[in-house]
Amino acid sequence: MVDSVMLWNEPNNLSHWDFKIDSDWKQFADMAKRACRVIRDINPELPIVLGGISPIDPKFISLMGSHGVLDELDVVAVHGFPLDWNHWQVSDWPAKIEEIRAVTRLPIWVSEVGASSFGAEEVQTFGLRRMAELLRGTVDRIHWYSLFDLPATWTATTRHKEAEGSAYYRHYYMGLFREDGSPKQAAQEFPRTGDIGMCQWFHFEDHRLDLAVKLMRELRVDYLRTGVSWADWFRPGAEEWFDRQMDALAGFTTTMTLCFTPEHLGVTPHYTSPAKDPNDFAEFAAWAVDRYAKRSQAKDSQVKKIADQDWPSNGEHAMACGSNTGREGVKA
Predict the structure, then answer these.
(1) For residue range 281-314, what is the model confidence (pLDDT) as tens digits?
(2) Is the CB of residue 88 less than 8 Å from the CB of residue 55?
(3) How far apart are CA 178 and CA 256, in angstroms?
(4) Which has more pLDDT, 151 or 12?
(5) Crossing angle of the two packed helices 26-42 and 278-292, in degrees rounded to 10
(6) Which terminus of the chain is more exposed, N or C, with fewer CB under 10 A?
(7) For the purposes of burial, counting CB atoms within 10 Å of the CB of 70, is it exposed (0-12), middle (13-18) or buried (19 or more)?
(8) What's the rounded Cα separation, in Å, for the pair 255 and 257?
(9) CA distances from residue 51 to 12, 91, 235, 245, 256 in whole angstroms, order as listed
(10) Count of CB atoms within 10 A of residue 39's CB?
């Protein structure tokens, strides 16, 4: 089931948001706040997560606070790959989390953490063990990136190919399983305890979907992060594909990420572009949440039953309810 929705992916990374156009992120903030409000209208109990930031930058979180975005959210998230792309050590993970905790009271998720097998499978196995050890008990949720290697014929989602040099090819070795589905050494070491989740993106009509479900069940994955692409929404057959994808993943506790601007709706024709009209993203968010994360009928009935009860006076009611007037924190 979808238990949370994430707005965008790495909004402070040029590979996912064009901050050359939106240099102060005001357009992103406006878009995110509009999406939050329509999501609350449909399912006020659904946790809303800020797209995982990469690099981990407390100044960006503070900026989102100054734009009023954090007031609309329930969780912030971060991404880190110190063995592959980041300019900090694996052992710095706790300090990087504390940097974010210093600027927000919101719960923190690590929605992508990983290590490639580009140089050696033993390095990936070390990264899995060490980063799980450092992050457990430090954040509310952890998603390992990723289940599969990126197929060799696909293009990695990055605008830094030239700058990355040979590091670009690390994108193709992030999976616990190779492109053909065969396991790497790290797959045998993945904790089958349910507390380490998985991040796996699926392309439109992705042939790996059924195998992914099978492998994640074998790994005893509970928490899953995946995406529903706004850009793909305009493809013929998109809604049928999304239905198939989300139905196949219904057995996992899923964070549904909404991102990627359709070319015809962007300020420039690129998936990283700010939208010409931020309400267009809000419309897509409303559709996705209504279709895959709508408040359940059972919950509606329960709320109505509670509302129909004869409550004591306001003061007594407040005492009975613990005087909690805010949204409850997200529980992992």
Answers:
(1) 999 999 999 999 998 733 543 333 333 334 333 3
(2) no
(3) 24
(4) 12
(5) 30
(6) N
(7) buried
(8) 6
(9) 9, 24, 24, 21, 11
(10) 24
Render pLDDT for 191-245 as a digit per residue (tens, 0 to 9): 999 999 999 999 999 999 999 999 999 999 999 999 999 999 999 999 999 999 9
Query: Radius of gyration (Cα) for the chain, nearest Å?
Result: 20
- If you write DSSP's letter for every residue of 222-254 in order, what string do you get? -EEEEEEETGGGGSTTHHHHHHHHHHHTTTSEE
Query: CA 329 to CA 303: how far, in whole Å?
Result: 19
In the chain, the amino acid numbered 109 is: W
CB 107 within 8 Å of CB 99:
no
Q: Which residues pair with 259 in a beta bridge?
A: 229
Q: In the predicted model, what is the mean pLDDT of the chain?
A: 89
> Three-state SS for 204?
coil
- Whether 120 and 162 have beta carbons less than 8 Å apart is answered as no
* Residue type at position 278: P
Write out the DSSP string of 274-331: PBSSHHHHHHHHHHHHHHHSPPPHHHHHHHHHHHTS----HHHHHHHTTT--SPPPPP
- Transcribe 157-186 into DSSP letters: S-S-HHHHGGGGGGGGG--SB-TTS-B-HH
Structure tokens at 130: 């060490």
The letter for the amino acid at 180 is D
Q: How far apart are CA 65 and CA 63, in angstroms?
A: 5
Query: Per 3-state DSSP, what percentage of the chain is helix, strand, and coil (rounded to 5)?
Result: 40, 15, 45
**Cα angle: 135, vertex 175, 113; to 5 degrees:** 20
CB 201 within 8 A of CB 226: yes
CATH number corresponding to 2-320: 3.20.20
Tokens, residue 268: 């420039």
Spell out the domain ranges in the chain: 2-320
